[in-house]
Design a protein that fits this description.
The protein is α+β, with helices and mostly antiparallel strands. The chain has one domain (about 10-195). It is about 40% helix and about 25% strand. The strands form 2 sheets. The chain has a 5-stranded antiparallel sheet. It comes from Tumebacillus algifaecis. This is DUF3501 domain-containing protein. Pfam families: DUF3501.
Length: about 200
Protein backbone atom coordinates (compact mmCIF):
# COMPACT_ATOMS: atom_id res chain seq x y z
CA UNK A 1 0.00 0.00 0.00
CA UNK A 2 1.28 3.45 -0.81
CA UNK A 3 0.76 6.26 1.65
CA UNK A 4 -1.95 8.63 0.41
CA UNK A 5 -0.90 11.90 1.95
CA UNK A 6 -3.22 14.89 2.06
CA UNK A 7 -2.04 18.00 0.26
CA UNK A 8 -3.37 21.52 -0.18
CA UNK A 9 -4.69 20.54 -3.63
CA UNK A 10 -7.09 18.05 -1.96
CA UNK A 11 -8.82 20.83 -0.04
CA UNK A 12 -11.95 22.27 -1.65
CA UNK A 13 -12.29 26.05 -1.35
CA UNK A 14 -14.78 26.99 1.36
CA UNK A 15 -17.44 28.63 -0.87
CA UNK A 16 -17.41 25.60 -3.20
CA UNK A 17 -17.44 23.18 -0.26
CA UNK A 18 -20.45 24.88 1.29
CA UNK A 19 -22.41 24.63 -1.97
CA UNK A 20 -22.10 20.84 -2.05
CA UNK A 21 -21.70 20.21 1.68
CA UNK A 22 -25.11 18.62 2.40
CA UNK A 23 -24.61 15.96 -0.26
CA UNK A 24 -20.98 15.36 0.79
CA UNK A 25 -21.94 14.94 4.46
CA UNK A 26 -24.64 12.40 3.49
CA UNK A 27 -22.13 10.43 1.42
CA UNK A 28 -19.55 10.47 4.22
CA UNK A 29 -22.07 9.27 6.81
CA UNK A 30 -22.87 6.34 4.53
CA UNK A 31 -19.18 5.71 3.77
CA UNK A 32 -18.26 5.69 7.47
CA UNK A 33 -20.98 3.16 8.36
CA UNK A 34 -18.87 0.26 7.10
CA UNK A 35 -15.78 1.71 8.80
CA UNK A 36 -17.24 2.18 12.30
CA UNK A 37 -17.15 -0.76 14.70
CA UNK A 38 -19.04 -0.59 18.01
CA UNK A 39 -17.87 -2.42 21.13
CA UNK A 40 -20.97 -1.22 22.98
CA UNK A 41 -23.13 1.92 23.11
CA UNK A 42 -20.27 3.96 24.63
CA UNK A 43 -17.17 2.77 22.76
CA UNK A 44 -16.51 2.61 19.04
CA UNK A 45 -13.67 2.64 16.55
CA UNK A 46 -13.64 4.42 13.22
CA UNK A 47 -11.08 3.12 10.74
CA UNK A 48 -9.52 6.19 9.15
CA UNK A 49 -8.14 6.74 5.67
CA UNK A 50 -7.50 9.68 3.37
CA UNK A 51 -11.24 10.14 2.70
CA UNK A 52 -12.28 10.27 6.36
CA UNK A 53 -9.40 12.53 7.38
CA UNK A 54 -9.99 14.90 4.47
CA UNK A 55 -13.64 15.12 5.54
CA UNK A 56 -12.57 16.06 9.08
CA UNK A 57 -10.31 18.81 7.77
CA UNK A 58 -12.98 20.19 5.45
CA UNK A 59 -15.50 20.24 8.30
CA UNK A 60 -13.05 22.02 10.60
CA UNK A 61 -12.39 24.67 7.99
CA UNK A 62 -16.13 25.06 7.48
CA UNK A 63 -16.95 25.28 11.21
CA UNK A 64 -14.13 27.72 11.95
CA UNK A 65 -14.64 29.71 8.75
CA UNK A 66 -10.95 29.30 7.86
CA UNK A 67 -9.52 30.49 4.58
CA UNK A 68 -6.00 31.49 5.66
CA UNK A 69 -3.55 29.25 3.71
CA UNK A 70 -1.11 29.08 6.64
CA UNK A 71 -3.81 27.86 9.05
CA UNK A 72 -5.12 25.39 6.47
CA UNK A 73 -1.61 23.96 6.06
CA UNK A 74 -1.32 23.61 9.84
CA UNK A 75 -4.52 21.56 9.94
CA UNK A 76 -3.31 19.41 7.06
CA UNK A 77 -0.05 18.75 8.93
CA UNK A 78 -1.82 17.93 12.21
CA UNK A 79 -4.38 15.58 10.72
CA UNK A 80 -2.22 13.89 8.07
CA UNK A 81 -0.77 11.68 10.81
CA UNK A 82 -4.15 9.94 10.97
CA UNK A 83 -3.85 8.71 7.38
CA UNK A 84 -2.56 5.12 7.42
CA UNK A 85 0.97 4.61 6.20
CA UNK A 86 2.37 1.67 4.30
CA UNK A 87 1.26 -1.72 5.67
CA UNK A 88 -0.94 -0.37 8.44
CA UNK A 89 -4.51 0.45 9.35
CA UNK A 90 -5.35 3.64 11.18
CA UNK A 91 -8.25 4.28 13.55
CA UNK A 92 -9.80 6.63 16.07
CA UNK A 93 -11.21 5.14 19.27
CA UNK A 94 -14.11 7.06 20.80
CA UNK A 95 -15.38 6.75 24.38
CA UNK A 96 -18.61 8.73 24.46
CA UNK A 97 -21.70 9.09 26.60
CA UNK A 98 -24.16 11.97 26.95
CA UNK A 99 -23.99 12.06 30.73
CA UNK A 100 -20.86 13.81 32.06
CA UNK A 101 -20.70 11.98 35.42
CA UNK A 102 -21.01 8.60 33.68
CA UNK A 103 -18.29 9.61 31.18
CA UNK A 104 -15.89 10.68 33.96
CA UNK A 105 -16.47 7.36 35.71
CA UNK A 106 -15.97 5.39 32.47
CA UNK A 107 -12.72 7.23 31.62
CA UNK A 108 -11.42 6.37 35.09
CA UNK A 109 -12.39 2.70 34.77
CA UNK A 110 -10.77 2.40 31.33
CA UNK A 111 -7.39 3.82 32.34
CA UNK A 112 -4.75 1.86 30.43
CA UNK A 113 -7.07 0.98 27.55
CA UNK A 114 -4.21 1.69 25.15
CA UNK A 115 -2.51 -1.55 26.32
CA UNK A 116 -5.58 -3.71 25.74
CA UNK A 117 -6.73 -3.40 22.14
CA UNK A 118 -5.87 -5.78 19.32
CA UNK A 119 -6.92 -6.65 15.81
CA UNK A 120 -7.01 -10.40 15.26
CA UNK A 121 -6.64 -11.46 11.63
CA UNK A 122 -7.17 -15.18 11.01
CA UNK A 123 -5.75 -15.99 14.46
CA UNK A 124 -2.83 -13.55 14.24
CA UNK A 125 -2.95 -10.91 17.00
CA UNK A 126 -1.85 -7.38 16.07
CA UNK A 127 -1.59 -5.03 19.04
CA UNK A 128 -2.78 -1.47 18.52
CA UNK A 129 -0.10 1.23 18.74
CA UNK A 130 -1.63 4.32 20.31
CA UNK A 131 -0.34 7.80 19.49
CA UNK A 132 -0.26 8.62 23.21
CA UNK A 133 -0.24 6.61 26.41
CA UNK A 134 -1.81 8.01 29.58
CA UNK A 135 -0.16 5.91 32.31
CA UNK A 136 0.76 9.03 34.28
CA UNK A 137 -2.80 9.82 35.37
CA UNK A 138 -5.88 8.18 36.82
CA UNK A 139 -8.09 8.31 33.73
CA UNK A 140 -7.90 7.92 29.98
CA UNK A 141 -9.08 10.34 27.29
CA UNK A 142 -12.30 10.12 25.31
CA UNK A 143 -10.53 10.15 21.91
CA UNK A 144 -7.50 8.05 20.96
CA UNK A 145 -5.60 7.88 17.65
CA UNK A 146 -3.98 4.55 16.89
CA UNK A 147 -2.47 2.32 14.23
CA UNK A 148 -2.39 -1.40 13.58
CA UNK A 149 0.96 -2.34 11.96
CA UNK A 150 0.14 -5.27 9.68
CA UNK A 151 2.29 -8.22 8.71
CA UNK A 152 2.45 -9.42 5.12
CA UNK A 153 0.34 -12.44 6.11
CA UNK A 154 -2.40 -10.24 7.60
CA UNK A 155 -2.44 -7.97 4.54
CA UNK A 156 -2.71 -10.95 2.17
CA UNK A 157 -5.58 -12.37 4.22
CA UNK A 158 -7.49 -9.06 4.38
CA UNK A 159 -7.04 -8.40 0.68
CA UNK A 160 -7.93 -11.87 -0.65
CA UNK A 161 -11.44 -10.87 -1.73
CA UNK A 162 -13.31 -13.54 0.25
CA UNK A 163 -14.86 -11.14 2.76
CA UNK A 164 -17.88 -13.29 3.63
CA UNK A 165 -15.66 -15.99 5.11
CA UNK A 166 -12.86 -14.02 6.72
CA UNK A 167 -12.08 -14.23 10.42
CA UNK A 168 -11.19 -10.69 11.51
CA UNK A 169 -12.08 -9.21 14.87
CA UNK A 170 -11.29 -6.46 17.32
CA UNK A 171 -10.51 -7.52 20.87
CA UNK A 172 -10.67 -5.21 23.87
CA UNK A 173 -9.37 -7.17 26.88
CA UNK A 174 -9.36 -4.53 29.62
CA UNK A 175 -10.15 -5.71 33.17
CA UNK A 176 -13.26 -3.49 33.22
CA UNK A 177 -14.36 -4.25 29.68
CA UNK A 178 -13.76 -7.49 27.83
CA UNK A 179 -15.36 -7.41 24.38
CA UNK A 180 -14.67 -9.15 21.07
CA UNK A 181 -16.36 -7.85 17.92
CA UNK A 182 -16.18 -9.62 14.57
CA UNK A 183 -15.73 -7.27 11.62
CA UNK A 184 -18.52 -7.48 9.05
CA UNK A 185 -17.78 -8.37 5.42
CA UNK A 186 -18.54 -4.72 4.51
CA UNK A 187 -15.96 -3.46 7.00
CA UNK A 188 -13.32 -5.92 5.83
CA UNK A 189 -13.99 -5.02 2.18
CA UNK A 190 -13.60 -1.32 2.99
CA UNK A 191 -10.30 -1.93 4.80
CA UNK A 192 -9.05 -4.12 1.95
CA UNK A 193 -9.44 -1.12 -0.37
CA UNK A 194 -7.10 0.85 1.93
CA UNK A 195 -4.52 -1.88 1.48
CA UNK A 196 -4.87 -2.18 -2.31
Amino acid sequence: MTTALISKSDIVALPTYRQGRDEYVKKMIQYKKARRVRFNEDISILFENKNTVLFQIQELLNNEDLTDPKEINEYIEIYSGMVPGTNELSATLFIETDEQTALTELLGKLKGIEHHLSLVVNGETIKAVFEEEHDDREFTTSVHYLKFPLTGTAIAYLANGSYEHEDVKLVLDHEHMNVTVALTPDTIASLAKDLA
